[in-house]
Design a protein that fits this description.
single chain, 210 residues
Length: 210
């Protein structure tokens, strides 16, 4: 996996544009998951390096891609139903896509506990974020709230990753960025989650104080 991340990150730094961001994030958000850190962080880094892309457009394109991938999962689950979804999760191809029954069940349990809003919160939780659209489809969640929550959750997550990419540009050279993302992608993801939690906690605190 580390070698795969190295190759993707290296290629992203050389060729990334808005179209590729949408495509990669659609794949990342569907049933062929790979870390979004290897797309959004290099995109922000290159925006700082070359000025050919803007940070807001990177976030918008990443969110569009995430929504496309989420809608693929939602649609498949909505129309195929639980037996076929679980059969796919238990298949050899499902395992090749890093999906198994336990992961789908975990996402479905999370959706059952937290309801529709889990499609927002779940976008920022590892091992849940790529699959949370499946239980939403199985439950036949209303499409408009699904799109809204998905866009908000993905947008916040992408903004955090873009911020990390911007910070990395001022602290490390290009080759060091590649190695850092490859070796510490999980730690970067956890850091992003902590930043999201901190921001939400601050907003809740301010709201309660008022």
């Amino acid at each position: 996996m580390e070698e795969f991340i190295l190759n993707i990150t290296n290629g992203a730094l050389d060729n990334l544009n808005y179209g590729w961001i949408i495509l990669f994030m659609a794949i990342e958000s569907s049933f062929i998951p790979f870390p979004s850190e290897v797309v959004m962080i290099p995109a922000a880094y290159m925006a700082s390096e070359t000025g050919e892309m803007s940070y807001p457009m990177i976030i918008v394109c990443g969110t569009i891609g995430a929504l496309i991938g989420a809608l693929i999962n939602y649609g498949l689950a909505y129309f195929l139903g639980r037996p076929i979804v679980y059969a796919f999760a238990n298949s050899r191809f499902g395992h090749f896509c890093l999906i198994d029954e336990e992961k789908v069940k975990k996402a479905e349990d999370y959706f059952d506990r937290h309801g529709a809003v889990s499609t927002l919160i779940g976008r920022m939780i590892p091992a849940i974020r790529q699959l949370i659209s499946i239980p939403a489809g199985l439950a036949k969640m209303n499409l408009l709230p699904f799109i809204l929550y998905t866009c908000i959750g993905a947008g916040v997550w992408n903004a955090i990753l873009v911020g990390i990419g911007y910070a990395f540009h001022s602290t490390m050279p290009k080759q060091e960025l590649i190695d850092t993302i490859a070796h510490y992608s999980h730690i970067i993801g956890i850091t992003a989650i902590l930043l999201v939690v901190s921001a939400l906690s601050y907003l809740i605190y301010k709201g309660l104080k008022r």
